[in-house]
Amino acid sequence: MTGRPFKEARAGLIAMGCEVERRDKYGVLFRRPNGTCVTVHFDISERDAAILVRDSRKLCGLPPAMRRTQDIAEAERPVLDLTRLTASTHAQIRLRQMRVQSDIPGEEIIGTLRRPTRVGYSTRHESWLWVGRRIALAMAVDESGASVIKTVLWASEELWAAHPRPEKRTA
After folding, report:
1. C-alpha Rg value of the chain to the nearest Å
2. Which of 8, 16, 18, 132 has its CA 20 to 30 A from that of 140?
3. What would the DSSP string read from start to end of 2-17?
């Protein structure tokens, strides 16, 4: 017989995009969107169920249904692993463009991730933005748990005006 804490944990994980890997007589193994797995035992306590869902949100970000709002608690943002940091091809291109416009040292990127002035969710980029003094980094966590820079943006309207994005070439 399953209790209310198990059902609440299961509902929270499924809303977050977790999938059931397998079920046995002790509980259910869920695969999180970032590829990590967690077992929810049928006899989980209410406190442990709440902690499990909270920690899963920290690790994986918000459930898809909650991503429409800009008013997101800082505690909901994913945890970045800066020892495993990569950048998408698009982010690398944007960084090269921005370095030509205004010198952006690598230390500024790491500094923005370690000590952002603010962090918020961007519905436009469908990612969390770590915002620094001059730049904002749209971040994601891939299946292996590595942190991925999806794109690099100027952090203010003044910087966008001073450094407009070059026109895209069409084929």
Report:
1. 19
2. 8
3. --HHHHHHHHHHHHTT
User: Could you give the CA distance from residue 145 to residue 66 in angstroms, rounded to a whole number?
Assistant: 21
Give the model's confidence band at 68: pLDDT under 50 very low, under 70 low, under 90 confident, else very high. Answer: very low
pTM of the model: 0.55
Of 50-64, 114-128, 141-155, which range is least confident?
A: 50-64
Amino acid at the residue 48 = D
119 touches 128 (CB < 8 A): yes
Tell me the C-alpha distance between 145 and 84, whole Å.
8
In whole angstroms, give the CA distance from residue 92 to residue 14: 34
